[in-house]
Amino acid sequence: MAGAVTKELRAQYDLLFSQAAIRPEWLAAIKAVARRALSPAHRTAYMTVEQATGVPWFVVAAIHNLESSQSMTRHLHNGDPLTARTVHVPEGRPTAGSPPFDWFASAIDALTGEGLAAWTDWSVAGIGCVLEGYNGLGYRRHHPQVKTPYLWSGTTIYTRGKYAADGVFDPDLVSAQVGAFALLIHLAEVGEIALPGFGAPKPDEAVKPTPALAEDDAAPLGQTAPPPYPGRYLAPESNGPEVELVQRRLAALGCDPKGFDQDLGPATESAVKMFQARSVGRGGEPLEIDGVVGPETWAALFGGPAAPASSAFVPAATSALGRRAIEIAEGEIGVREAPLGSNRGPKVDLYMTATSPGSLGLPWCMAFVYWCFKEAASDLGRGAPVPKTAGVLRGWDLAQSVPGATVVTAAAARRNPSLVAPGMIFYMDFGGGAGHTGIVVDNANGRLTTIEGNSNAEGGREGIGVFLRRSRKVEQVQKGFVGFA
């Protein structure tokens, strides 16, 4: 990849971007791609790749849509299946390892091989240049009258003209893909990303300077921007320089931690709770008053935009299997029993049959979870490590001895909620042999997003279908959580 964008190219990209607008007839398709990109599983995956390569997560998302229709079972290079090395250009990638390949390893190989990991200019022009090069310069070199649909499809910059195959250009063919800038413009419009040049003030508009975050000695010295979230929850008994940052900020805000000793002891915990009681998180909702400094409380303390919690840390326990299981489960949201309340139905029977064909009509939440992981394992060319049972508590007991399983007990999760990762299974115990389970999709400061079978909108264990829920808390799970590699 070239070292810099030329002055001429920069002027062209900036001009085109300033003129680009989303075509109304494309809006629904663009929103659909954006919803998938912003789903907890996909966004966490993209941010993991960003951490490894430096390529912004939204650029990874745009490439993922264009090259493999957002599938986690295909190479980011060109959409070939992960079950083998690539057979299309670039051929034979990745060169290291053996199939089936992990999506992350393949994605990092794709971006590194194309020079994106060494690229540092993520301005509009820089994004345009690097993505056009990633797709190939055929339009620019041979059909300059057509602005590449790889960037501009779905916007007013592109109308028609497309390569039907390598080297075969059709002037009347219209791209059906959402172009990279169409997606990025939409993400900027809804406030998910800050794209340089988007919504910039007009030359005659006054721009107010952003005040420095810290203006006194009690705040972090020399900070002009919020300090980055440390990537771990700061709970009682935590220690280290990040705790001192919190202590000094609490003192500056009138919540006295009784010193700056880098130890989150009782006095600092009380000060955190006082601050939480007085403050709100993203969206204006009250903070959880728990004495724990997670992503929400950190953002409230230090200012700046509060990114979704999934961008603040990427739990190490998240596995390729867990991520694929989330995708499978997302596709089942909306399944309902037939008739309602019967524990039966075509899909419900399929889940139950996967574990115990003779148990049709019984509660099926564990069977649903097992089926999702079985399908995910099959997609990855592996056996399913999740115990084959329709019983929640038996599933928990058996999981303790599964090789490579990450077991987080309820007590451990309460002490450190960041141990609970997307792709883990939660196990609840209501006594008398009754339990409930589901798949963790996201963990926002101890508040879980989950997908649950045999549930309902309120989270009951004797529900009517597969639901996405956003209100469970780590401390409400009585048994614990298990991640399967």
Largest sheet: 6 strands, antiparallel
Which segments are poorly predicted (pLDDT under 50) over 5 or more consecutive residues? 200-225, 304-317
Global Rg: 25 Å
End-to-end CA span:
36 Å
Overall pLDDT, averaged?
83
Helix content: 25-40%
* Number of DSSP helical runs: 18
Can you count the beta strands?
8
Strand content: 5-15%
H/E element order: HHHHHHHHEEHHHHHHHHHEHEEEEE
Q: Structural class, judged by helices and strands?
A: alpha+beta
Strand order of the largest sheet: 3-8-4-5-6-7
Q: What kind of oligomer do you see? A: single chain
Shape by Cα distribution: globular
Describe the structure.
This protein is of the alpha+beta class. Helix content is 37%, strand content 11%. The protein has 18 helices and 8 strands. The protein has helices spanning 7-19, 27-38, 40-53, 57-68, 103-113, 124-135, 138-142, 149-152, 180-189, 241-252, 266-278, 295-302, 309-312, 320-330, 346-355, 365-379, 392-399, 410-415; strands spanning 162-165, 168-170, 406-409, 425-431, 434-444, 447-455, 465-473, 480-483. It has a 6-stranded antiparallel beta sheet with strand order 3-8-4-5-6-7. Strands 1-2 form a two-stranded antiparallel sheet. A hairpin with a 2-residue loop joins strand 1 (162-165) and strand 2 (168-170). Helix 1 packs across helix 6 (124-135), helix 3 packs across helix 5 (103-113) and helix 4 (57-68) packs across helix 9 (180-189). It is globular. The model is unreliable at 200-225 and 304-317 (pLDDT under 50).
